[in-house]
Amino acid sequence: MTTFDRIKELAEKRGKSLPAVSADLKFSDNLFYRWKTSNPKASDLAKVADYFHVSVDYLLGREEKPFPSDADLADMIERSTHFDGKEYPDEVKQGMKDVLRAYLMGRLDDKE
Predict the structure, then answer these.
(1) Cα–Cα distance measured from residue 77 to residue 53, given in angstroms and rounded to the nearest whole number
(2) Which CATH number does the domain housing residue 21 bear?
(3) Is residue 65 part of a domain?
(4) Quick check: 3 and 35 in contact, CB under 8 A?
(5) Rounded distance, CA 94 to CA 110, Å?
(6) Per-residue b/e over 27-54, b at no fewer than 16 CB within 10 Å?
(7) Angstrom distance (rounded) from CA 56 to CA 3
């Protein structure tokens, strides 16, 4: 699936047309269609990723999932064992998971 295809699919899931997404992002009407044959600028891709709450890697086809799952986030926290040179205990890790999950869910709910 191409970057264009992924953006089109994300727009359709939101009930939006590509020109409407372009307008929301203050892009030219045909920008996404030009991406079928040319490479998008990194800054434009970042805006699209933020708009749809997905990663740039997802848009580029490097990731199959639009954003990390709970398991991915939990794994990242588990692997991080130190902050500012100090090791933190398991209860701190669990608190980090809870806060991150609540934050991300709130952000996703705010954007819908």
Answers:
(1) 21
(2) 1.10.260.40
(3) no
(4) yes
(5) 24
(6) beeebbeebeeeebeeeebebbbebbeb
(7) 10
- 43 plus 83 within the same structural domain: no
Spatial contact of 10 and 54, defined as CB atoms under 8 Å apart: yes
Q: Can you list the pairs that 41-48 forms with residues at least 24 positions away whose Cβ atoms lie under 8 Å?
A: 45/3, 48/7, 48/21
Tell me how far apart the alpha carbons of residues 53 and 66 are, in angstroms, rounded to a whole number.
8
d(CA 81, CA 76): 10
Q: How far is CA 54 from CA 37, 68, 74, 79, in A?
A: 22, 9, 18, 23
What are the pLDDT digits (tens) for 22-73? 999 999 989 999 999 999 999 999 999 989 888 888 899 888 776 655 556 6
Please return the burial class of 7, using the count of CB atoms within 10 Å of its CB with bins 0-12, 13-18 and 19+: buried
Same domain, 41 and 74: no
Question: 43: domain range?
Answer: 3-60
Total-model pTM: 0.60
Instruction: Tell me the sheet residues that pair with 82.
Output: 87
